[in-house]
Each structure stands twice: as structure tokens, then as C-alpha cells.
Give the backbone structure.
Amino acid sequence: MVRKTQFSAEDVVQAGFMVVRQQGIEHLTARNVARELGASTAPVYSNFQNMEELEREVFARAAERLKTYASEPHTDNAFLNIGIGVLRYAWDCPRWYHAFTVRTDLSHAHFQGLTTHFLNQMTQDAELGTLHPQELGLLLHKMAIFTHGMAWDICLGHVPEEALEVGIRLMEEVGTVLSQDAISRPPRTEEEYASLVPFCQVTTQKPESLGD
């Protein structure tokens, strides 16, 4: 009779998530996941064919966590909630924010899904929901540039805890200005939208390193 493993796939994925959260993506190994579980490496390989499969599942878990942060009702403005959620995620999980930007081979598909989720979230706003789809994407991209920069300041330890709320208020100010501009500006031509296609999706730059 085949002995049932003591740890489920869910247990292993959660352990992998915690390894990255505590130590960084470079430490996501079978041995470290096993140490987090308090077991041998057997549960890793009995639930997953290889580490590549586990990495994909762990990244999916982290992406869902980010989506949750960005969907929480921090304010009554769904657009601002996205930025606030990203900043709080960077504060709570700086090594995961770093992991998303250095392992683009694993995070790219999740960012596409997150972008779609965020755009759908923005359309719930009575005014933003009337914008041209590419204008909405451009607005999200503009906001991402500011939010990503501040999130990296947080990850690198440049924003002390007592300044986090101030940073969030600054992000809210920028988001309010950007959204008001998108709503009030004259409509763009289709030619303008065609030229702006590369900027209508959220992208991130790969940093060289993350401070301890």
C-alpha cells in the first residue's frame, strides 16, 4: 500500500511562499521548502514533478495575494485602492515584490492577469468606466510608474514605517490628478491611441538587487 504523504500540495505551496517572503526568491529550493515544512524533501517531490512546477504554483499564490491587497476597500475609490494595495503589499512582502520583477519568466503571465483585473476594477467607477479602453490602460500605466517607484523605495528600506501613510497619501494625490486629467482631457484620435499602444499596459523594470 502506498503511504499517504503527510503534507498536501497546498502545504508545500504555502511553505514555498513563506520561503520567498522571508528569504528571497533565490532561496526557493526543495531543501529550504522542506525546512519550512519541518520535513524531508519527500513532500516536495511527491506533490510536484519538479521545482519548476512548484515555482509556478508559488508565483500563482503570490499573484493572488497581490490581487487581494489591491482589491481591498482602503477608500471608496477603486482606482486608488489598486495603488494603495500595491504599496502595502510591497511593505508586507518586499521580497515577493522583488521576485515579481526579477523572475519575469514566471511573473509575466500573472501581470497580464492582474492588469486585466485592475482594469475591470477601474471600470466600476462611474466616470472612469466611460473612458476609451486604451485611455484606461494608459491611466493605469501612468499610475504604475509612480506606484512602482514608491514600492521600490519601500522594498529598499528608504521609507520608514512612520512615513508609509504619508507615502500613501502622496500616491492618492497623484492618482487623483491623473484620473481627473484622463476624464477631462479632449478625446484622442485613433492615430494617437495607435501610437500609445506600448504605454497602455503595465510594465516593470528589472532591478539589479534588493537590499537586505
Summary: Confidence is low (pLDDT under 50) at residues 1-5, 202-212. The two ends are 47 Å apart (CA to CA).
